[in-house]
Amino acid sequence: xxxxxxxxxxxxxxxxxxxxxxxxxxxxxxxxxxxxxxxxxxxxxxxxxxxxxxxxxxxxxxxxxxxxxxxxxxxxxxxxxxxxxxxxxxxxxxxxxxxxxxxxxxxxxxxxxxxxxxxxxxxxxxxxxxxxxxxxxxxxxxxxxxxxxxxxxxxxxxxxxxxxxxxxxxxxxxxxxxxxxxxxxxxxxxxxxxxxxxxxxxxxxxxxxxxxxxxxxxxxxxxxxxxxxxxxxxxxxxxxxxxxxxxxxxxxxxxxxxxxxxxxxxxxxxxxxxxxxxxxxxxxxxxxxxxxxxxxxxxxxxxxxxxxxxxxxxxxxxxxxxxxxxxxxxxxxxxxxxxxxxxxxxxxxxxxxxxxxxxxxxxxxxxxxxxxxxxxxxxxxxxxxxxxxxxxxxxxxxxxxxxxxxxxxxxxxxxxxxxxxxxxxxxxxxxxxxxxxxxxxxxxxxxx
Length: 448
Ligand code: GCO
Known about the structure:
This protein is of the alpha/beta class.
């Protein structure tokens, strides 16, 4: 049988799990770590559900050995984690906190000893508050500060870590953080959001250069949150137009400049902001090819001409499965997305850098967590990835979100995405059935 029909994934396919620093580490005041915008934001009343913060989170900073052991038990070959910028540069730039780097040093050694390949995300949203106080991502100087972080991390880890993600989900960071104010730092200005997005892309371009200069045989790329956009009512022209606008917002804002097309003409109008100043050389730096494109996919977008309807996350099928965040579950949309990326942008390689789901009702009973809906979610999406590979999408790996239940940003701890359950009272970990499922697929390298 051919690969396309027997459910096999390509030889050497990467199977992993992903996390991010602020969502799991805790230990926010230990070993010289500085304050991040997520510390400040989550401690501001009214910003997160129940005022929850990442102060303790999964206590991964102290329990990383146990967590690596769980990944090993699941036979996963790769772990994608992010580096906390204020742990390494407490003031955002300048003085390097060696004790902060030591943590990642220990983690990398632990992973390598377990036969797990580390994938380091250089930025997943925990900007040092000191830099926010100087203007944050809407200010161009943050790009220079970021290169100091990339220097420090690659000089310390580059002898052992080859795979880097530069910037994670610049859309969410810029749009939710600076435009809508729903994420840290909680600012609400679309002109700032557009500038933040531009600077995140410049930071990516500069990071590629630094990683390649410091790490022999490095592989580096950006990860984007992407969602195919469809008209809610396929017979309604206005819904088609809404889907086109949402495609600019959710996908083309970042894909177009990364692949050398510059920004979409109507980006400013669609966001309601003003475009930042784009200097000579900016677009070339942004379009320097990465070694892969990281795709984070969770749910499609159905667009309506009526914004109130669009905001309610509608779906043409009223009975569609929905996650605890009300996100429609539609694996076929991932196949569509991957086909479209190949048709319009043709990256040399693709990594599914995040995919997963929160569902209510995970309970530990006799040392087991039965989570059939999460297992079905993963199975459906792996089938979708397999289908895309069969028609030529160059997907080289899949990282489930997430290794552990964790701090789901403004949603707090109530929304559990883990393939491993965390009891936040005791910090006990229990592998969920979905984790066992992923382990089987990873071990056989084929659909279960
Ligand atoms: C990321 C993600 C995660 C979220 C996940 C579920 O890019 O790292 O946004 O932080 O927890 O996407 O919402």
